[in-house]
Amino acid sequence: MSDPWVALEPGADPAERVRALRRAHETFTAAGTAAGTVPRPVRSVVADSWRRSARAGVGPDGTASVELTDGDLGSYRAEHPLAPVMPLFRELMGTFAADGEHLLAVCDAQGRLLWVEGHPAVRQRADGMNFVPGARWAESAVGTNAPGTAVALDRPVQVFAAEHFIRRVQPWTCAAAPVHDPRTGRVLGAVDITGGDGLAHPHSLGFVQAVARAAESQLALLAPARGTADTLELTALGRDEAQLLAGGRKIRLSRRHSEILVLLAHHPEGLTGDELLCALYEDESVTPVTLRAELARLRRLLGPGLLASRPYRLTAAVESDVAVVERRLGTGAVTAAVAAYAGPLLPGSQAPAVARLRRRIADGLRTALIARRDPDLLADWAHAPWGEDDLDVWRALAAVRPTAPVRARLDELEYELSAPAGWARSAPR
């Protein structure tokens, strides 16, 4: 096949491909291991997704869970950054979905369906597999599917029939493409078209990709114009070097400048030189001269008027992804807080105050997740790079989703914890 991202090459017999895929799916799922060989003709992108699905503990007879309903769903959709482009999605895809007996679906960055619209009869059929607003279709929750896999891979993807990991979804074919924040490049969610085998055509993949790009262009136009003295936007979660949007400029900051801006954004009242010195450096031998030199370089980078002194402070309001997570967590909006959390704050930073803030945010989220006992939210955290060794979260996940892969991983972590220091550790058998 010339393009591994397209489900069917020209001239392929869909019925024969479905039969071959079902045989391959049965072989793989019967083996019961994420490391198993995936037989041909399964595409490499689908084979990799099947293995990730198995590692996440997804069973082939599972189903999607509905996580948001009624008022919770309405309020979450209303504040979601993709809400402003829903009219565009409907204009570009609504008629195509209704006339072709397909569904238009939009999900968030965690694979949670926000809108599902289209042909009424098709919507009624899709209800039987919980392909409904508020349901969680992340790959880690329901296995291989176009919207969930698109946000997992951050690229357009087509999933044909028995390429779906869960059997009850295998009568369907779908294509989805991620939609990004035009300012930060972060994945906001995905737009999806779901229906029959005809969607396996290469044109459907190009179609959703074009719609996603149009949505990104619309989001860029809808973004308020910013002057040099207007609100700054700071993105620092999940990245060692923060990004600042200032006056329409995207500024990639050095590690030290990232630390300084994170701390000044967290202290809008400002910090004295001594406070900033203690917050940034573990080494007490670092002199105020070193700090002043860093601040002078940062001032030149930001431009005139943005960084004041005595105390050091930013003269413009700052909206940071850190503040968004803290604000949502403080109001009890755990799902929304997790959606905004892209990873640990400046994970490579050893600045004492940054490290404390990083732990506080992560511990606050972990505590809320464990108390919430939502298996999908716990699984997302446990399977993220920052959660793969989180014993408390794995214990909480095992309590609400005691699948064999989850129990096996928990056994490994508990064994590592109990083994004496210095012993050669191997996984229990």
Q: What report would you give on this structure?
A:
The chain has about 425 residues and is of the alpha+beta class. About 45% of the residues lie in helices and about 10% in strands. It contains 17 helices and eleven strands. A five-stranded antiparallel beta sheet has the order 2-1-5-4-3, with helices on both faces.
Secondary structure blueprint with pairings:
Layout lengths: L13 H18 L12 H12 L14 H10 L6 H14 L3 E6 L4 E6 L1 H8 L11 H4 L3 H8 L3 E4 L12 E8 L6 E9 L6 H21 L9 E4 L7 E4 L2 E4 L2 H12 L6 H8 L7 H15 L4 E2 L4 E2 L3 E3 H10 L3 H7 L11 H21 L2 H9 L7 H10 L3 H15 L11
Parallel strand pairs: 6-11
Antiparallel strand pairs: 1-2, 1-5, 3-4, 4-5, 6-7, 7-8, 9-10
Concise summary:
The chain has 429 residues and is α+β, with helices and mostly antiparallel strands. It folds into three domains: 209 residues, Beta-Lactamase (2-Layer Sandwich), CATH 3.30.450; 147 residues, Arc Repressor Mutant, subunit A; 57 residues, no CATH class. It has 17 helices and eleven strands.
